[in-house]
């Protein structure tokens, strides 16, 4: 296979937690890989990919079209999740709307056929886009009624890609993710999710706190399994195009149980007693969704692609703790 015969995969937002992990995996494949981010991108050496790195502000006029020119596949990981306060984004957060919605609209207009076929876009959605949920596990057939600002923006971007697919301009699939956690693929990629946040607290000897009694369940996905899901979506784009799919372990865990497992993992590594796990009053900015359990049924994606979760939760927690402890040691 010549260099020109290799598919061109473009990763937007390649320095983020998930974007850097997918970049590291794709760098080992026989593809052309263009990674785009505002910060310097660290791509693992020794891989099979032909790699091009670009530092760019994707919101600057004309930048996005050049970044995705000639792409066979685009993975748009650029997103704004937190607002100026460090918490959730708000309705008046203009940079969030531009990043989460307008950028996807521009992407859909910028892409064109490559090698006679519409390009593939694998969009990282969120399982919270569905909005209020009932008692049964989510399987992707539910009507969507997104509640929060971020969820509404993700949903709007997903609809743009579905409409472009229906018009024959793209082959887009949305992979709706649960909370993803694990070791960061690059030193610039910080996992600020609930699992890593609690692991850092436990390593610092601080108690782990919950805004409820610990029975609220979450389906928590290890980053390696999330990366394999994106690779599976790329490989099965024709079968998946135009739809959204939920992925997860299919085994939601009570957060109290997860936090105690984190405390035990840190204790095994440090030789100290496990830190306590406590319930505390919720802050004023807590939302209803923070107190609802979310169970995921990923059967549709599994059937279409053959993808499976492979990392047991206890192993995933141990690997996360080990990685965070190592990063703290390196800083010292």
Describe what this molecule looks like in 3D:
The chain is of the alpha/beta class. It has 2 domains: 3-182 and 220-246, Rossmann fold, CATH 3.40.50.720; 194-217 and 252-331, UDP-galactose 4-epimerase, domain 1 (Alpha-Beta Complex). The chain has 10 helices and 13 strands. The protein has helices spanning 17-26, 63-67, 94-110, 149-166, 194-203, 223-235, 237-240, 255-270, 299-305, 313-331; strands at 8-12, 32-37, 50-55, 73-76, 120-126, 171-177, 180-181, 208-210, 217-218, 221-222, 244-246, 253-254, 277-279. Strands 3-2-1-4-5-6-11 form a 7-stranded parallel β-sheet, sandwiched between helices. The protein has a two-stranded parallel sheet with strand order 7-10. It has a two-stranded parallel ribbon with strand order 8-13. α4 links the parallel β5 (120-126) and β6 (171-177). α1 crosses α6. The chain is globular, with a radius of gyration of 20 Å. The termini are far apart. The mean pLDDT is 92.
Summarize the structure.
By secondary structure, this protein is of the alpha/beta class. The protein has helices at 17-26, 63-67, 94-110, 149-166, 194-203, 223-235, 237-240, 255-270, 299-305, 313-331, and strands spanning 8-12, 32-37, 50-55, 73-76, 120-126, 171-177, 180-181, 208-210, 217-218, 221-222, 244-246, 253-254, 277-279.
The succession of helices and strands, N to C, reads EHEEHEHEHEEHEEEHHEEHEHH
CA(first)-CA(last) distance: 46 Å
Strand order of the largest sheet: 3-2-1-4-5-6-11
Q: What portion of the residues fall into strands of 2 or more residues?
A: 15-25%
Q: Which structural category fits the helices and strands?
A: alpha/beta
Q: Look at the structure and give the CATH class of the largest domain.
A: Alpha Beta
Number of helices: 10
CATH homologous superfamily title of the largest domain: NAD(P)-binding Rossmann-like Domain
Domain NAD-dependent epimerase/dehydratase: 9-248
Pfam families: Epimerase
Protein name: Putative NAD-dependent epimerase/dehydratase
Region (Disordered): 270-289
């Amino acid at each position: 296979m010549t260099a020109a015969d290799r598919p061109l995969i473009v990763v937007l937002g390649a320095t983020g937690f998930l974007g850097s992990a997918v970049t590291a995996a794709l760098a080992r494949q026989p593809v052309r890989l263009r990674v785009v981010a505002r910060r310097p991108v660290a791509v693992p050496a020794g891989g099979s990919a032909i790699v091009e790195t670009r530092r760019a502000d994707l919101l600057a006029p004309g930048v996005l079209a050049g970044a995705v020119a000639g792409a066979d596949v685009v993975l748009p990981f650029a997103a704004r999740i937190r607002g100026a306060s460090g918490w959730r984004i708000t309705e008046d957060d203009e940079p969030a709307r531009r990043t989460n919605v307008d950028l996807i609209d521009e992407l859909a207009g910028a892409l064109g056929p490559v090698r006679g076929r519409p390009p593939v876009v694998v969009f990282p959605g969120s399982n919270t886009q569905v909005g209020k949920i009932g008692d049964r596990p989510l399987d992707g057939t539910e009507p969507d009624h997104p509640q929060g600002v971020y969820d509404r923006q993700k949903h709007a971007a997903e609809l743009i890609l579905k409409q472009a697919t229906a018009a024959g301009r793209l082959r887009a699939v949305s992979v709706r993710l649960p909370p993803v956690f694990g070791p960061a693929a690059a030193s610039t990629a910080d996992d600020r999710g609930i699992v890593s946040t609690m692991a850092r607290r436990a390593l610092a000897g601080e108690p782990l706190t919950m805004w409820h009694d610990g029975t609220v369940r979450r389906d928590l996905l290890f980053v390696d399994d999330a990366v394999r899901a994106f690779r599976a979506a790329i490989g099965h784009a024709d079968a998946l195009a135009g739809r959204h799919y939920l992925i997860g372990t299919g085994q939601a865990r009570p957060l109290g149980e997860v936090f105690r497992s984190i405390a035990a993992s840190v204790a095994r590594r440090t030789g100290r007693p496990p830190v306590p796990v406590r319930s505390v009053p919720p802050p004023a900015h807590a939302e209803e969704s923070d107190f609802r359990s979310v169970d995921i049924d990923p059967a549709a994606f599994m059937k279409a692609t053959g993808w499976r979760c492979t990392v047991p939760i206890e192993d995933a927690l141990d690997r996360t703790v080990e990685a965070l402890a190592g990063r703290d040691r390196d800083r010292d």
